[in-house]
Amino acid sequence: MSKKISPTEAAALMEKSTLFVYEAMRRGLLEIGVAMQMPGSTRWSFSISPSMLASYLGISTEELFKRLAALRERKSVC
Fold first, then answer.
1. 3-state secondary structure the chain
2. Contact of 51 with 60, CB cutoff 8 Å
3. Closest by alpha carbon to 9, among 47, 60, 42?
């Protein structure tokens, strides 16, 4: 299983919208990783830290990966 967490997956785990995650990270209001605007571009890149997201959710990193695996399993079944 990939340990990389997308903004969409983080949003689902937080029970928030993906737009909330993007905007809050851009504004520095949600400290679960890094949001960077690419130089000379209007595009942004997002990197979500599993340990920071787990801390935000108040769970262990191990529990985060269990929930992430279940989320990915549900997505692959649909």
1. CCCCCCHHHHHHHHCCCHHHHHHHHHCCCCCCEEEEECCCCCCEEEEECHHHHHHHHCCCHHHHHHHHHHHHHHHHHC
2. no
3. 47
Block means of pLDDT (10 residues each) for the chain, 78 residues, are 90 98 98 96 96 98 97 87
**Token pair for residue 16?**
């928030």
Residue 39 is which amino acid? P
If you search the block for the tokens 């979500």, which residue do you land on? 48
Q: Can you give the pLDDT at residue 76?
A: 84
pLDDT score of 1: 63
> What is the value of pTM for the model shown?
0.90
Give the span between the Cα atoms of 69 and 33, in whole angstroms: 20
Residue type, 32: I
